[in-house]
């Protein structure tokens, strides 16, 4: 069955009209007679969106029980059984209720696509997995519901639903998006003009990159070599000289003038070896171009101008930036140079910028444009001298009679000149033609092809031998120079590979892309031998139409061991290129193995961490939970015993023991549950502006009276926190401080404001903690020093730090002046809440893909002391 097609409506923020556009498309298809159903659409009581559902068939949703509530999800089985032509599935990044068929809704969509059903869906830009950190830095909200970028990129059609920030805020103010009681908070927080503008830019740029990928694929499939200036791409030609930094900065300024400009710096390794690049300088320039947002490319090519133009056209570049030639004036007799050649051959589709710099005309400029070995122009000059030189010299010698010896020397000079210019073949032609002319016009008998004097035969033989010898030396020198240049280029590439091995930086796809661009191929793939059902599987691929079924389908295949092969398409490579290609193939295998080992290491690390926590939890349960349970059991058994008549005082003491044991159990179990939620990342928050003098006193209800001194002024600014989590964090800190403080010495809890942040300090006068142990005390199941087994399971501080970081704050330990330990809990003031960290929603819970209100743990029920 053919796989269904996926169409995605992408928006910058909630309320731009994605669902409305999806439903409008559904009505258009229904009018054309297409079998279209609503698998899952959430309208959030928006009247216009709800009205669009009329006239469309809706698949009943599946009901699931979760935490004493009945929630609904898309019924995948019902949709598959209905088997429509098109299904509408809203909110692609939504996380399904536990117990659903799949964990994520995009996995449900993938299943529908696999069944041959076309799907139309919606997603916001902030839910793309790769943009999580960027969105968090803009809005202060960490999106926990995400969809993999690769799944969205594979969509057959992506439609941008766009709206200006001003129009979206007007829709919000009119009550078209959220309920009226949430409008003010939304407009002042998540839906601020700056946030919406930044999210809109992200959406536009992401879609532009996707369009650019489509364009590259189309150009590759249709073999379009002409440059289409759809966006500015600027190629910078580097020589490895110090002027490269100037060129890169100049190209970056050019790119900034156009929207979406891109800089590609390229170093052509090869040529005749006359110019040697500094590896150190190239490394500096690579870092500079990457810091400026560009990319660095290393390409092998003997003809520098041709390789540079081929690279520019292959990258669909619109401009080339080159530096002024570093050659002196007299060096131009050897040719126009790379800059002039590129400008001449660039055509009308490429603009060439020649940038002046301090190194111009100071000597040893760019290599002259040449072909293989001696170069095309030089070989042509060699043939011209070799064929025309001897007749011209013979005519000249016919007017001036210098004798046979001088005639031989002059003709030998012409042969040497032909050898120096064109190599072996022009010199052989010159020697043969010169010997014939010398025999016919200069040796007795004249004008005859015979030689009367045997000495003249020896002279002619020596003449030919000297010419051939000189030509051979020149040709050999040219070949050695060419080989040296090629080996130098290979060594630079191998050095690059070795550096990547040591740094472990290159991903498999990036390495395959480097192979493809280095050898000028159309595609590259790493194939792995499978079983009899699938003889070969593709471990990684780049480019258009790579071979994925078997290596024999490629133009070039390099086997690596018994199970892997590197396959390339585009052209047949010469034998000398396979040495470097084999190195790339070996590196690709290393990268693949490293990736798999990293995945296995991550899994092992996760299992080890889980085992460590389970082991510690079992140890805690074995004693710390059994002790209060044993006390409660003993007290209850005593109260129920008929053998002893308990006095009212005794009964009150036993009941107090039961209550204390229950409180200990409640505290221990609460910390265990909190830590499990932190470990699994299920802590969600509701952040509101809160007064510290309302929350902190509530955290002191579980400690003995008189054990804490409170200093929290009412003039402090409000803080942006989850009140329940803040109370739990402070309670754990205070309980820990009271536990280690000397008897009769109260713990000080104070608060102060500094630079948009508020610090809560819990100060004790206990034994303190050494510097090397200050971080370990925040790890789960850690009890510092010789704390007794009944002192808890060692989770209080770990939970406190976890909750603090979830609210965008920090928790650190400092030494108390004069002895003791001070816990510093730092949270953001309400005025600075816009820059909150993961999970923070300022004033309004962040819109989630599922659209359901978020939960937060209930605060512990403590009374103010």
TrEMBL record:
<dbReference type="InterPro" id="IPR014729">
    <property type="entry name" value="Rossmann-like_a/b/a_fold"/>
</dbReference>
<dbReference type="Pfam" id="PF02702">
    <property type="entry name" value="KdpD"/>
</dbReference>
<dbReference type="InterPro" id="IPR005467">
    <property type="entry name" value="His_kinase_dom"/>
</dbReference>
<dbReference type="InterPro" id="IPR038318">
    <property type="entry name" value="KdpD_sf"/>
</dbReference>
<dbReference type="InterPro" id="IPR052023">
    <property type="entry name" value="Histidine_kinase_KdpD"/>
</dbReference>
<keyword id="KW-0472">Membrane</keyword>
<dbReference type="InterPro" id="IPR004358">
    <property type="entry name" value="Sig_transdc_His_kin-like_C"/>
</dbReference>
<keyword id="KW-0067">ATP-binding</keyword>
<feature type="domain" description="Histidine kinase">
    <location>
        <begin position="620"/>
        <end position="831"/>
    </location>
</feature>
<dbReference type="InterPro" id="IPR003852">
    <property type="entry name" value="Sig_transdc_His_kinase_KdpD_N"/>
</dbReference>
<keyword id="KW-0808">Transferase</keyword>
<protein>
    <recommendedName>
        <fullName>histidine kinase</fullName>
        <ecNumber>2.7.13.3</ecNumber>
    </recommendedName>
</protein>
<dbReference type="InterPro" id="IPR003594">
    <property type="entry name" value="HATPase_dom"/>
</dbReference>
<dbReference type="InterPro" id="IPR025201">
    <property type="entry name" value="KdpD_TM"/>
</dbReference>
<keyword id="KW-0418">Kinase</keyword>
<keyword id="KW-0902">Two-component regulatory system</keyword>
<dbReference type="InterPro" id="IPR006016">
    <property type="entry name" value="UspA"/>
</dbReference>
<feature type="transmembrane region" description="Helical">
    <location>
        <begin position="380"/>
        <end position="402"/>
    </location>
</feature>
<dbReference type="Pfam" id="PF02518">
    <property type="entry name" value="HATPase_c"/>
</dbReference>
<dbReference type="Pfam" id="PF00512">
    <property type="entry name" value="HisKA"/>
</dbReference>
<feature type="transmembrane region" description="Helical">
    <location>
        <begin position="409"/>
        <end position="437"/>
    </location>
</feature>
<keyword id="KW-0547">Nucleotide-binding</keyword>
<dbReference type="Pfam" id="PF13493">
    <property type="entry name" value="DUF4118"/>
</dbReference>
<feature type="transmembrane region" description="Helical">
    <location>
        <begin position="457"/>
        <end position="478"/>
    </location>
</feature>
<keyword id="KW-1133">Transmembrane helix</keyword>
<keyword id="KW-0812">Transmembrane</keyword>
<dbReference type="InterPro" id="IPR036890">
    <property type="entry name" value="HATPase_C_sf"/>
</dbReference>
<dbReference type="InterPro" id="IPR027417">
    <property type="entry name" value="P-loop_NTPase"/>
</dbReference>
<feature type="compositionally biased region" description="Basic and acidic residues">
    <location>
        <begin position="853"/>
        <end position="865"/>
    </location>
</feature>
<dbReference type="Pfam" id="PF00582">
    <property type="entry name" value="Usp"/>
</dbReference>
<dbReference type="InterPro" id="IPR036097">
    <property type="entry name" value="HisK_dim/P_sf"/>
</dbReference>
<keyword id="KW-0597">Phosphoprotein</keyword>
<feature type="region of interest" description="Disordered">
    <location>
        <begin position="832"/>
        <end position="865"/>
    </location>
</feature>
<dbReference type="InterPro" id="IPR003661">
    <property type="entry name" value="HisK_dim/P_dom"/>
</dbReference>
